[in-house]
Design a protein that fits this description.
The chain is an alpha+beta fold. The protein has one domain: 2-Layer Sandwich (Alpha-Beta Plaits). 35% of the residues lie in helices and 30% in strands. The chain has helices spanning 13-19, 36-50, 78-89; strands at residues 24-33, 54-60, 66-75, 96-97. Strands 2-3-1-4 form a four-stranded antiparallel β-sheet, covered by helices on one side. A hairpin with a 5-residue loop joins β2 (54-60) and β3. It is elongated. The protein starts with 12 loop residues before the first helix and ends with a strand.
Length: 98
């Protein structure tokens, strides 16, 4: 069997809670193709978790074919962060989440 290249799920609940206070801001970086479809899917995934309480910033690679989208979630609970990771994990083309 081949190795899976899918991103890891959310960090452990205990790790998130130990390092963040809720409600509060939580940063996630999503890496994937620099396409409009990927941008829209990342935005929709984040909004499924926290509604309008998300801000997105983009940085495109020097070759223009990859993008890093930084999501600033204004999360009310750790459950919203875990849900955001789950929704982002399902976005087609996602290469990595930090």
């Amino acid at each position: 069997m081949g190795q899976s290249t899918s991103p890891a799920p959310a960090p452990a609940r205990e790790l998130i809670e130990a390092n963040h206070e809720f409600p509060g801001e939580y940063l996630i970086k999503a890496f994937g193709p620099a396409t409009e479809g990927f941008r829209v899917a990342i935005d929709a995934a984040a909004r499924e978790a926290v509604g309008a309480r998300v801000e997105l910033r983009e940085r495109i690679s020097s070759k223009g074919n990859s993008i890093c989208i930084t999501l600033t979630l204004r999360a009310e609970t750790v459950d919203e962060v875990i849900l955001a990771y789950a929704r982002l994990h399902d976005v087609p083309g996602l290469k990595m989440i930090l």
